[in-house]
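OP here, attaching both records as promised.
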Amino acid sequence: MMETLKSVGFSQNASPTKQVVDDSSPKHVAGNYDSMKASCSAAPTNIKEDLDNGVDSVQKLLCMIVRRKTYLPIQLEHDKIVSNFKMSPKYMKDLLVGDNWLDFSILQLWCTYMQRLSVDTKNSDLFAFLDPVQLSFASKPVSLQKAGKQYIQNNLRDLNKVCYLAPHLLDGHWQLIIMCPRDNVIVCLCSLHRKIPEAARNFFTDAFKVHQLATFDNRKKATWIFPKTRRQPNGNDCGYYVIKNMLDIVTASIAMNWMEVFDDPTSLTEEELYELRNSWATCFLDLYNPEVDYDVADDEA
């Protein structure tokens, strides 16, 4: 089995390829887009084959998809707007091998994992998780941002949570935006210690302002906070740092004191990065049901 894994570059201590952040970014959004469906050969009848004892979720999942061409449909739970979701084996391999950017779909599944974790830790009254694809409108011209702002406002109005965690990709870099209506605060956790670009900042501020006025009659402008969270040493790992920050927030029930809590500029270790991959893979294996997989006719259509 390990020979199969090594053939795709897998290592439990894989070191991410060094890149410059602004040189490239995830080019496609996998998710609720029928046009993204693969048209290659059908998957094996039973891709959840029995593997040797002692393998972790990363190894098991990578063996499942190493020769997989077709997309894998799963049901996400963090947002009812995400339907007909299909996961690309390519983007899954990027995560599992640990040598490339993280696609939108990887963060979408992580939001579902965080939603489940918030319920398990009895924090479901604290946190909501906004879908990163819906937030991609922040990178669009102002004339096209209305749908994204409306999405934020609808969630702030309907869910009534303390903090809304929003993984956000702009200019090839993932950041975590946290909106806290009761404190009138917006937090930006960036693994390069950058402030959010002005256009994206205005996108979130404008959406937040409408909710604050309607719900709290609060006309004060939201305060933006930029803690010095853990810092990535290269150009590939920003998505992992967003994943790690979300995990820490939900696990420790963090809803305030952001500057004090996130005050550690050290980089994630290879062991920490691998554990994040393993947690993601565990969540996918829990969600995936081969009985609702594509049938051969669909793949050949």
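Record two, same layout:
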Amino acid sequence: MEEKNINPTNEQAQACLRVCEWLSNGYRNIQLFRFDYQTGDVYILAGDELQIIVPSSGFWYFL
């Protein structure tokens, strides 16, 4: 498997940390945490129904 560099923006990295903390405080399991190299977005799947996208701007939203 080829290793790729993950280069999130500072805003995006901090937003991911806040979202993951918010999810864990609500006792939600984080099933998937993925950085999309093509779009630069982070995808977070929590539980069975919560889907969150964190773009490079750091303004996350539910999918």
